[in-house]
Inverse folding.
């Protein structure tokens, strides 16, 4: 018999290193940020993306100003308006205040924004439910998942045993990623994983 397969097509917009709140020799870079983010919003709209991934360093410092936070919220609002059905994922980088990305999670979720600031564990094991972000295709069908992992801090890493050769930090990061992918695969099987 004839067997047909249909593959979903999804369009991703990957962005990072916004560094909101940055200054250059004491001069605010907010006008540059606003212009760049307006272009990003327009790209998302014209390309009709299914997902927007902001992969770290959203802010320039661990204590972002009210203006920097406001610019983030305004940008998220405008991205949502430009792409009403798109998945939006914010993933903390090494410059980001993980707690400030985690604290508004309930409000972000209400707006359809997934915010991942820390590595989540349940009973000591990696918790894939806190890190798997679904992406739907144009028809609204689940097409893939993002495995959203924030910048790993020392407390997020497994402790290397005495038998580990080389850098225990490198080993820890590799082990964290291995554990995360294995947990995600147990949760979603062989579905597409980004």
């Amino acid at each position: 018999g004839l067997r047909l397969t249909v593959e979903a097509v999804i369009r991703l917009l990957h962005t990072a290193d916004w560094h909101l709140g940055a200054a250059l020799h004491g001069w605010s870079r907010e006008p540059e940020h606003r212009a760049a983010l307006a272009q990003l919003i327009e790209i998302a709209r014209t390309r009709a993306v299914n997902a927007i991934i902001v992969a770290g360093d959203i802010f320039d410092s661990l204590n972002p100003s009210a203006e920097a936070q406001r610019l983030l919220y305004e940008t998220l609002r405008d991205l949502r308006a430009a792409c009403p059905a798109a998945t939006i994922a914010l993933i903390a980088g090494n410059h980001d205040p993980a707690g400030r990305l985690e604290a508004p999670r309930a409000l972000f979720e209400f707006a359809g924004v997934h915010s991942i600031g820390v590595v989540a564990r349940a009973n000591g094991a990696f918790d894939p439910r806190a890190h798997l972000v679904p992406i739907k295709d144009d028809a609204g069908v689940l097409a893939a998942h993002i495995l959203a992992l924030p910048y790993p801090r020392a407390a997020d890493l497994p402790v290397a045993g005495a038998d580990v050769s080389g850098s225990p930090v490198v080993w820890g990061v590799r082990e964290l990623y291995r554990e995360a992918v294995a947990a995600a695969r147990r949760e979603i099987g062989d579905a597409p994983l980004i």
In short: The CA atoms of residues 62 and 97 lie 5 Å apart. The two ends are 33 Å apart (CA to CA). The longest helix spans residues 168-188. The beta strands are 12-15, 23-24, 27-28, 51-55, 87-91, 113-116, 121-122, 125-126, 132-136, 142-147.
